[in-house]
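Marked as duplicate of an earlier ticket. Keeping the data here for the record.
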Amino acid sequence: MASLAGRILITGDGGQVGDALKETLAPLGELFAPTLSELDFTNTESIRRVMSDFRPRWVVNAAAHTAVDKAETEPDLAIAINAAGPAILAEEAKALGAAMIHYSTDYVFDGSKTTPWVESDIPSPLNVYGESKLAGEVALTTSGIPHLTFRTSWVYGATGKNFVRSILKFAREREHLNIVADQHGAPTWSFELARLTAHSIEMLEQRAAEANCSLHEAVAPVSGIYHATASGETTWYGFTVQAIAELQKLKPQLKLATVNPISTEEYPTPAKRPMNSVLDCSKLERVLQWRMPDWRESLAAVVAELDRLGEF
């Protein structure tokens, strides 16, 4: 099993998804997770050199410019990391006969639907971040490389900078928190994305072995975009209330902030956010046989992990 998937390149070292991937993909093959100094997404030659030297069978691209508001003032950097870099990776991977897994975002949509978004809905991003991630999707689609693009949302985990860690810090420091209650989505644990990725690689490698075909031939029939978020939906307000409740269960002696719901208009940000970015994940379940747990279940696990790590 150790050599099932051969060499796997993981980009995005130090990020929430990148770090989780190093754990879930370790049993499948030889991993290389270059540091930011070893793989510079703003430098085409850096990308080509890493691909040429390592020659992976799988490229798992978790590198991303995810600072949504900051992207408004540095669009060139967001495009370089979220679109131009993945395009070069795809070009090099195709030449090597490698397959690619890439992560995108709910923010490719404008939030105008009242029902969950499906993969065939027309993207219309409201901000630079969403535009750059959409450009990355298009780059992979037009490259001709067999790939899986997982659109996800509201990613968090027990490591790195994210909403849960920040909000629980504020809850311990402040008496009141005002949290937006009219933006809807599905908080998704980075580790669950990494588990999905491992499942997908293992499934497709087994398909290639059973059919005695190339990896490209095995991946091509399922190549494309998949919505991949936790089950269920909530708002940032609901997410906050649930996170604080989980912490209170573990630490009943802590005095934690009360949470007040507010509207998006009451909390203006440089980047406009979609009001409804709930994604329909039925294609993921139908084609790749995978369904993520309910967001509450994952959140409870993350808060417990933060407690074990001494965060509180």
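See parent ticket for discussion. The chain has a mean pLDDT of 94.
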